[in-house]
Amino acid sequence: MVSKYSNNVSTDSVVQLQDIVDNLQNIEKSIIQINKLLSENSNILSLVQIQSYSATTNDHTALSAINVNLSKLIEFANNHAELHSSIKPLILELISIHNIKVFYRCLNNEHSTITNPALRLLTNIVSFNNGFFVDQFLETFDLSLKSLADLFFPTKTSVRLCKQGKFHLTVRHFMSRFWISL
Question: Distances in Å between the alpha carbon of 114 and those of 59, 89, 110?
């Protein structure tokens, strides 16, 4: 989903990303499309700018969608060594000092629809290629954020989901997976 507020930001890269993610079952075609998308630095910058813009404008739908799609892209690339060099600039841009604040906004948010996709994306980043980016991530990410510890405490929604056997949908679950991966 493209942000409804992104009039001044090119959304072509987000549309391309959505098309790729929608067709990941066609592996060979997806690899070609991913390499093509990520071969242009402007596409990488555009994806990161739209993620940041969606967070800044509180466009939660677009922010969740791009985080989900980026997460799926990185997870797919992790399973295909021929994509490792192509995905590296995107991951480095996502965890750069000027973009890491997007994740702080997502993690400080009270909505699991924002927090869970961000935690899933962070988990895929730190898990990528057996933790290849962990050191770069730790150089920019502030582990002293109070909101990180708060994510481990169950909310009323978490308790209700757990009672329904849906513990895998809770923020606590996604935070635990991220922390273990880190």
Answer: 10, 24, 8
Residue from 120, 139, 130, 134 nearest 177 by CA: 120
As given in the structure block, the two tokens for residue 54 are 């969606």
User: Could you tell me the two tokens for 44?
Assistant: 């990488």
Grade residue 162 by pLDDT with cuts at 50, 70 and 90.
low
CA–CA distance, 46 with 181 (Å, rounded to integer): 28
Over residues 72-93, the pLDDT tens digits come to 999 999 999 999 999 999 999 9
Mean pLDDT of 125-145: 95
Q: Report whether pLDDT(55) > 50.
A: yes
Task: In the chain, count H helices and then E strands.
Answer: 11, 0
Give Cβ neighbours of residue 122 (< 8 Å, ≥ 6 apart): 103, 137, 178
b/e burial code for range 128-149 (CB count within 10 A of at least 16 → b): beeebbeeebeeebeeeeeebe
Q: Find tokens 């949908």 and name the residue.
A: 169
